[in-house]
Amino acid sequence: MKTSFRYSSNPELSGITLDVINISNQSAVPGIADDPLLRAVKDTHAPFHEAVLREPTTRLGKELGKLNRKRIKTANALRSLLRQITKFSNTVRSAPAAAILKEWDMQVNPISGNDYDEVNAYMNKLIALLKSDGLRPHFEALMLTDAVTDVETADAEFQTLYLEQTLGNAELRRRGSATQHRAPLEKALGNYLKFITVMRGQPGYDVLYSKLNETIKTAKKASKKQPPEEGEAGE
User: Fold this and answer.
1) 51: buried, middle or exposed (CB in 10 Å: 19+, 13-18, 0-12)?
2) Contact of 231 with 3, CB cutoff 8 Å
3) Taking a C-beta distance cutoff of 8 angstroms, is the pair 82, 100 a contact?
4) Are 5 and 16 in contact (CB under 8 A)?
5) Is 121 left (phi over 0), alpha (psi -120 to 50) or beta?
6) pTM higher than 0.70 for the full model?
7) pLDDT for residue 14 is more than 80
8) Between the CA atoms of 152, 157, 159 and 163, what dihedral angle is there, to the nearest 10 degrees?
């Protein structure tokens, strides 16, 4: 019977373990449901399964990067629009646009990449400037107060998700990740399955062995990864 699960994903391993526990609990083998080796499987599976269910909520990196780029693009779009307006030097809109860009260049240093901390500092300083009393009349004259709101909203969207990720990661560290809980579960599950393999010649154990072996084989075939045959014992 397969006793190594290093090729199985965390959700797959959790599902296999649940099947092993349920089949064992329903077995006619006397006392097997309370066997110390099965108890170890149950005890190590509980925190692992909880972590597997919890972890996907913190996998926000891709969406966070998308929102980070969006807030940069929104700010850059406003700056580009102001620069375009200043090219029409004979219009009344040119002067307020030029005044805004002058303060922008004097007070806010440009960013060189997508580093979250650097962009956070940039956006904090920029939004404070764009909403300042000194620049508000210029944006009103240009009828671009909504554009300032768009920049602020784009940053707020990022900050909301960034906080969610920060809190989620902190909770994972406190309660332990699936990876941290996996090794004890794999060891306990391997020990139990080896025990069942050794005992399969005893009355009742042959049926339990067959059911567990078939379940594990089915799970292995359904796995997204197809490793070479290894980790088998007693077949």
Assistant:
1) buried
2) yes
3) yes
4) yes
5) alpha
6) no
7) yes
8) 160
